[in-house]
Amino acid sequence: MNTMLRKSVLGIAGLAVAGGLAAGPLHHGEVAPVTGLSEAAVVQADKPDAAKLIPHGVQGAQSHIDLNDEQIGNAKAIIAATKKAGLPERAAVISIATSLQESKLENLGHLGDKNDHDSLGLFQQRPTSGWGTPEQITNPEYSTLAFLKGLKQVDGWESMPLTDAAQTVQVSAYPDAYAQWEQQAADIVAQYWNS
After folding, report:
1. Closest Cα partner for 183 from 191, 175, 173?
2. Distances 46 to 41, 42, 50, 56, 116 between C-alpha atoms, Å
3. Within a 10 A sphere around the Cβ of 40, how many other Cβ atoms?
4. Quick check: helix, strand or coil at residue 125?
5. Deepest in the core among 40, 85, 124, 177, taking most CB within 10 A?
6. How many Å apart are CA 177 and CA 63, to the nearest integer?
7. 93-149-134 Cα angle (round to 5)
8. What own/partner pairs with CB < 8 Å and gap ≥ 24 does 107-110 have?
9. Residue among 52, 61, 133 at smallest CA distance from 88
10. pLDDT of residue 119
């Protein structure tokens, strides 16, 4: 093939490839019309990145539980209350990790002899410690907003390790226990923040 013909063929092939990249695949539904991103990528772009929700990396071994519909509903309620409080995704991660440790995201009522003092709700808050009435504490929105009010009073909570932020609010006998839930909490926030 002579040099001029080869250059022409390569030039046309290059234009075809460049045009194909700009236009995207020909399969219907694979490319979002304006952005050039796949529909899955557009949906994914709306989600917070779970890795960015863990600015310090996870601390220690991580725990994970399978969540039922009620627990997922409680996680969504925590996310909604965090948004209502005008706080970022990181506050929701800290809140959900705290609730995973305290109640496994179950809105616990009085547990009789198994109860830790008079602890109730998603965060095991105590009426006698000033968190609110039993009815308030067992309301997911109220209990989350109460937790977040305490979190906002912690200087530098946004940049400290999760377990330190949670412990400062909760004052638990097991201060390092919150860390084990950070990855699952970040995954939950990444999945449901924009739903």
Report:
1. 191
2. 9, 7, 12, 23, 40
3. 10
4. strand
5. 124
6. 10
7. 95
8. 107/70, 107/74, 107/138, 107/140, 108/138, 109/134, 109/138, 110/134
9. 52
10. 84
Give me the count of residues in the chain. Answer: 195
Per-residue model confidence (pLDDT) at position 46? 58
Amino acid 188 reads I
- Please, is 159 exposed, middle or buried when counting C-beta atoms within 10 Å of its C-beta (0-12, 13-18, 19+)? exposed
CB 149 within 8 A of CB 143: no
How far is residue 25's CA from residue 27's CA, in Å, rounded to a whole number? 6
Q: Which residues of the chain have pLDDT under 70?
A: 1-51, 55-57, 110-117
Q: Cβ–Cβ contacts within 10 Å for residue 132, how many? A: 19
φ/ψ bin of 125: left (φ > 0), alpha (ψ from -120 to 50), beta (otherwise) = beta
Residue 118 Rama label (left phi>0; alpha psi -120 to 50; beta): alpha
Question: Token pair of 167, please?
Answer: 């412990």
Provide the whole-model pTM: 0.72
Residue 154: which region, alpha, beta or left (left: phi > 0; alpha: psi -120 to 50)? beta
